[in-house]
Design a protein that fits this description.
- This protein has 18 helices and no strands.
- It is mainly α.
- It has one domain.
- Helix 3 packs across helix 4 and helix 16 packs across helix 17.
- The longest helix has 32 residues.
């Protein structure tokens, strides 16, 4: 077995053991693998699929086709349910394997973009990341989405090495698959693809062609589901979730904080396009307030507030509950979720460890970005940096630690180089 394979095996083993600690805690709870409504909706979609009722979230006939959720993760859960029965534990076990393998992908990506040692450090940092371990143990899209995102980025890194357009097409197609898992990456190809022109080996005319191949490959992967939504509901969109979030999360927060009031779904436009237009008008009219809320959301996502990853192990009030506290309706009933058997002091120590780890990773990532810019690792910097910028831009006021999961591999890549670049530079000089 080569050294690279041994390093990959160690990273995978450490990541898997870390995640299994939370798996063991979740197994002792009656509903430990679910995270508020999202997990229950994925479960319902998967059950209806294996029962032959189509892609529907309905609990009884008629089985109305759902156009809010994207299909890839429910399809994976349905496949696992068909093999092992309709219980969440086997599906979460698949999540654990995908999450642990993502750490190996970060090692491979870091070795290609920076150096083998930097890749090993990046993979180790992700293996020990608390948010990644926690969310791998919930019936959510994060593990599958991050896995597909990293494979896409690895294919794009291979394109940057040799300029073969087939790798650009493969990277775009994989990113399209990731978007069918979690639509937060809907516009990501157009942003991250800029690395093709900024750091790719192709000349200007060919770079534009390769950029379009990359971005349109992602679009092509999504179009069948857009067509399906148009056929079943007359909505030519990948998902209506974006419209709902824009109106009931972002616009609602602005209306409440500005004192104008928000009445939930009462008076909301029924059509997704109209809902989007009204929400955007509210955001544009109060853009300074929205920018402040967006900044607070990023701080929450990065652990600057109460929404640290450990608190996802307990019921977290979403937007509807926030509204109910202000007299806009009865509070929903949240299912029980698992808690770590650490006691109050142990939980405080884990929170402190999480914040200190985040501080160390983000600081090392900033150092790594500066070193990559000065030290000839600009393709790696641009690939990771453009993806980080995209996630920070699209994560709005509603962001919390769950939104950090696909961001951490990118920060770990830069942190791996930031932690070792001085040693690498001295080694290069000595040789």
């Amino acid at each position: 077995m080569s050294v690279n394979h041994r390093i990959a095996l160690v990273i995978f083993f450490v990541a898997l053991v870390h995640r299994l600690l939370f798996f063991a805690a979740a197994c002792r709870q009656p509903d430990g693998f679910h995270h508020l409504a999202d997990s229950h909706e994925y479960h319902r979609l998967a059950v209806n699929l294996i029962e032959g009722r189509g892609f529907s979230m309905a609990g009884e006939a008629p089985w109305t086709p759902d156009v809010r959720r994207t299909p890839l993760f429910p399809a994976l859960v349905a496949a696992v349910y068909r093999l092992f029965g309709a219980g969440p534990a086997p599906a979460v076990a698949v999540n654990l394997l995908l999450s642990a393998w993502s750490c190996v992908l970060v090692y491979r990506l870091g070795a290609r973009l920076f150096s083998p040692a930097a890749g090993a450090l990046a993979g180790g940092l992700l293996a020990l990341d608390l948010a990644s371990a926690v969310y791998a143990n919930l019936l959510l899209t994060e593990s599958l989405f991050t896995f597909l995102l990293l494979i896409s980025m690895l294919a794009l890194a291979r394109y940057l090495d040799g300029g073969r357009v087939a790798y650009a097409a493969l990277a775009g197609a994989l990113l399209g698959l990731a978007t069918l898992c979690r639509p937060i990456s809907l516009y990501m190809a157009w942003c991250v693809g800029l690395v093709i022109g900024l750091a790719g080996p192709a000349r200007r005319g060919r770079a534009l062609r390769d950029y379009l191949v990359y971005a349109l490959s992602a679009v092509v992967m999504m179009m069948p589901w857009v067509y399906r939504n148009y056929r079943v509901a007359g909505i030519a969109q990948l998902t209506t979730q974006g419209s709902l979030n824009l109106y009931h999360e972002r616009a609602a927060r602005i209306l409440l904080e500005s004192g104008q009031g928000y009445t939930g779904g009462v008076g909301a436009p029924a059509a997704p396009d109209a809902m989007q237009a009204q929400a955007r008008a509210i955001l544009w009219a109060h853009w300074p307030l929205y920018l402040r809320q967006h900044g607070r959301g990023i701080l929450e996502m990065m652990g600057g507030g109460r929404s640290v990853a450990l608190e996802s192990l307990e019921p977290r009030p979403p937007m509807p509950h926030w509204l109910s506290l202000r007299g806009y309706g009865p509070p929903p009933v949240f299912p029980p979720q698992f808690t770590m058997p650490t006691g109050p002091l142990g939980k405080k120590m884990l929170r402190l460890a999480e914040w200190l780890a985040l501080l160390a990773v983000t600081t090392a990532a900033a150092i790594g970005a500066a070193a990559a810019w000065r030290g000839g690792r600009r393709p790696g910097l641009l690939l990771a940096g453009l993806a980080v910028a995209y996630f920070l831009l699209v994560s709005g006021p509603e962001a919390y630690s769950r939104f950090r999961v696909p961001l951490m591999p990118l920060l770990a890549l830069l942190a791996g180089w930031g932690g070792l670049y001085r040693h690498q530079a001295r080694k290069a000089v000595a040789s």
